[in-house]
């Protein structure tokens, strides 16, 4: 089962440039979370900080009682064993075939025999649909296959936390849909804590249990999927529904003249909230909540047409 990540008052700067400040959120154990935000808002920096590759200026990141923002290198090394990471481009070693790429963490961090390594590698290759491709080099396969190979490598140490840095980057919509289904199925199977950084609004609307939005150097909102998809908060509404009207502009923030020109414009209605994507076997994940449960608990009337099968997986406005 996955583990909880508790982030308190986290801030990160590069020189005088504040990337984001005072970020606080709790990533629940075993759930799928998505972190969104316009380009340049520090989403990948947030992932690197969570795993200890970057040190925050202030704040804490508690994982199983250890604050990885201030712990020793030895303790950090141990905590990192809980993580698996899928990097944007797969981060494969170009001179190694897929088998050796996936086997690398096992050979580096364990004392398992080669027969044990082979059994684990083949299991993970099968899990991501790459059996039969283990002898291929990364340069000989498609971007989607490299993503899946990177995911197999992220899973070989049976992590309790899996981080995905823009897994849909460079993929066409069909491959993105297949990868999203794979993520759902993996979470159902291994029950680890998943955090996905993405720009893909359709992924955010259909895959996660929780959504976060980084904007203008702070965390605009973090909470259950239904909360954000029914939110009237201007930046959340604009981003999650891919609308032009709102505070986000081409250069992140619109200036006063742009915002003034939009005054009085009628916002389009919120699109229906789609059904959350389910595992292929149809059995709900442990963290999956019944459709509309959050809205009902909080007295929120969802947009008309929400949670209907015909809306599942549709892009905003479809």
UniProtKB/TrEMBL annotation:
<dbReference type="InterPro" id="IPR027417">
    <property type="entry name" value="P-loop_NTPase"/>
</dbReference>
<protein>
    <submittedName>
        <fullName>ABC transporter ATP-binding protein</fullName>
    </submittedName>
</protein>
<keyword id="KW-0547">Nucleotide-binding</keyword>
<feature type="domain" description="ABC transporter">
    <location>
        <begin position="5"/>
        <end position="241"/>
    </location>
</feature>
<keyword id="KW-0813">Transport</keyword>
<feature type="region of interest" description="Disordered">
    <location>
        <begin position="247"/>
        <end position="318"/>
    </location>
</feature>
<dbReference type="InterPro" id="IPR003439">
    <property type="entry name" value="ABC_transporter-like_ATP-bd"/>
</dbReference>
<feature type="compositionally biased region" description="Acidic residues">
    <location>
        <begin position="254"/>
        <end position="265"/>
    </location>
</feature>
<dbReference type="Pfam" id="PF00005">
    <property type="entry name" value="ABC_tran"/>
</dbReference>
<dbReference type="InterPro" id="IPR003593">
    <property type="entry name" value="AAA+_ATPase"/>
</dbReference>
<dbReference type="GO" id="GO:0016887">
    <property type="term" value="F:ATP hydrolysis activity"/>
</dbReference>
<dbReference type="InterPro" id="IPR017871">
    <property type="entry name" value="ABC_transporter-like_CS"/>
</dbReference>
<dbReference type="GO" id="GO:0005524">
    <property type="term" value="F:ATP binding"/>
</dbReference>
<keyword id="KW-0067">ATP-binding</keyword>
């Amino acid at each position: 089962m996955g583990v909880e990540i508790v982030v308190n008052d986290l801030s990160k700067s590069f020189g005088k440039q504040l990337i984001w400040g005072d970020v606080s959120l709790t990533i629940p154990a075993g759930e799928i979370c998505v972190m969104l935000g316009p380009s340049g808002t520090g989403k990948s920096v947030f992932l690197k900080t969570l795993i200890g590759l970057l040190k925050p200026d202030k704040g804490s990141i508690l994982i199983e009682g250890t604050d990885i923002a201030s712990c020793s290198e030895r303790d950090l090394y141990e905590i990192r064993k809980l993580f698996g990471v899928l990097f944007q481009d797969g981060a494969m070693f170009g001179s190694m075939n897929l088998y050796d790429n996936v086997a690398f963490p096992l050979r580096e961090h364990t004392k398992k025999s080669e027969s044990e390594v082979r059994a684990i590698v083949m299991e993970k290759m099968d899990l991501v649909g790459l059996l039969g491709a283990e002898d291929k080099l990364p340069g000989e396969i498609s971007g989607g296959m490299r993503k899946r190979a990177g995911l197999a490598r992220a899973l070989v140490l049976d992590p309790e936390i899996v981080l995905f840095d823009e897994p849909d980057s460079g993929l066409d919509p069909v491959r993105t849909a297949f990868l999203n289904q794979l993520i759902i199925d993996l979470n159902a199977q291994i029950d680890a804590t998943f955090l996905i950084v993405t720009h893909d609004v359709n992924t955010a609307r259909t895959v996660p249990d929780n959504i976060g939005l980084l904007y203008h150097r702070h965390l605009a909102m973090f909470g259950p999927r239904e909360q954000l998809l029914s939110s009237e908060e201007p930046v959340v509404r604009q981003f999650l529904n891919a609308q032009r009207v709102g505070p986000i502009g081409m250069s992140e923030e619109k200036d006063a003249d742009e915002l003034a020109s939009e005054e009085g414009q009628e916002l389009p209605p919120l699109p229906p909230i789609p059904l959350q994507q389910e595992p292929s076997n149809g059995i709900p994940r442990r963290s999956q909540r019944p459709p509309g449960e959050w809205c009902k608990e909080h007295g929120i009337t969802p947009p008309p047409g929400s949670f209907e099968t015909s809306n599942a997986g549709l892009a905003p406005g479809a």
